[in-house]
From TrEMBL:
Belongs to the pyridoxal phosphate-binding protein YggS/PROSC family. The keyword Transmembrane does not apply. The modification N6-(pyridoxal phosphate)lysine is found at residue 26. The keyword Nuclease does not apply. InterPro entries: Ala_racemase_N (IPR001608), PLP-binding_barrel (IPR029066), PyrdxlP_homeostasis (IPR011078). The lineage of its organism: Bacteria, Pseudomonadati, Bacteroidota, Cytophagia, Cytophagales. It holds the Pfam family Ala_racemase_N. Pyridoxal 5'-phosphate (PLP)-binding protein, which is involved in PLP homeostasis. Residues 3-220 form the Alanine racemase N-terminal domain. It comes from the Bacteria. Keywords: Pyridoxal phosphate. It comes from Hymenobacter aranciens. This is Pyridoxal phosphate homeostasis protein.
């Protein structure tokens, strides 16, 4: 199936679910991104800041760029002029760097708190306690140009449905606790980014609002 057909099928599947599609374009050349754009996709996810910064000027300005991979503070300047959402916010240090650069550009950058929900140790992200430490810190009170819009997580690479559901529920639980304790009156704190090509259906059933899908659209990255 073509990129356009895959996007149409996914959009039809997500319709009415409360989840929106982030088309994960990492490693794919700009021509494939243009194909996705022509098929109606407007949210693109990249995991490397350099690659995202190189592609961004080649696409129309109404694309929402989502960074989904680890961002080093010394790379923030590459994406600060245009990034819509940094889904992979994993430290206070990064939050402060993003805030500083966003202010410099007179922008508000959205960010999701990335949580560690997988069994694999290697995957990054906050524990609930660490996220609370960030939200309770004095530094957090100084942040004006980054808007926290929700949470993100990457589940274990597995086809064990029970395990995946447990991890998605854990992330949703974190979201609900944070919402109640820190963002009760804040309508913009609403995103639960979870689900990839292999597990987005389960993630949607467990309350995902943003699914990040690459290989189910473009084929495997080889
Ligand atoms: C690559 C990637 C995806 C998309 O993975 P697919 O299996 O190709 O759909 C989603 N989220 C993150 C964080 C990724 O790095």
């Amino acid at each position: 199936m073509s990129v356009a057909e895959n996007i149409a099928r996914l959009e039809a599947e997500l319709a009415g679910s409360g989840a929106r599609l982030v088309v994960v374009t990492k490693t794919h050349p700009v021509e494939r991104l243009r194909e996705a754009y022509a098929a109606g996709a407007r949210r693109f996810g990249e995991n490397r800041p350099q690659e995202m910064a190189a592609k961004q000027p080649e696409l129309p300005p109404d694309v929402e760029w989502h960074l989904i991979g680890h961002l080093q503070t010394n790379k923030v300047k590459l994406v600060a002029p245009f990034v819509h959402t940094v889904q992979s916010l994993d430290s206070l240090r990064l939050l402060l760097a993003l805030d500083q650069h966003a202010a410099r550009h007179g922008r508000i950058i959205n960010a999701l708190l990335q949580f560690h929900i997988a069994e694999e140790e290697a995957k990054t992200g906050f524990s609930y306690h660490e996220a609370e430490e960030l939200l309770q810190s004095n530094e957090f009170k100084t942040v004006n140009n980054v808007r926290l819009t929700g949470v993100m997580g990457v589940a274990t690479f597995s086809d064990d449905e029970n395990l995946l559901r447990t991890e998605f529920r854990q992330l949703r639980g974190y979201f609900e606790l944070l919402k109640a304790h820190y963002f009760a009156g804040d309508e913009s704190f609403k995103e639960i980014s979870m689900g990839m090509s292999g597990d987005y259906r389960l993630a949607v059933q467990e309350g995902s609002t943003l699914v990040r899908v690459g290989s189910a659209i473009f084929g495997s990255r080889g």
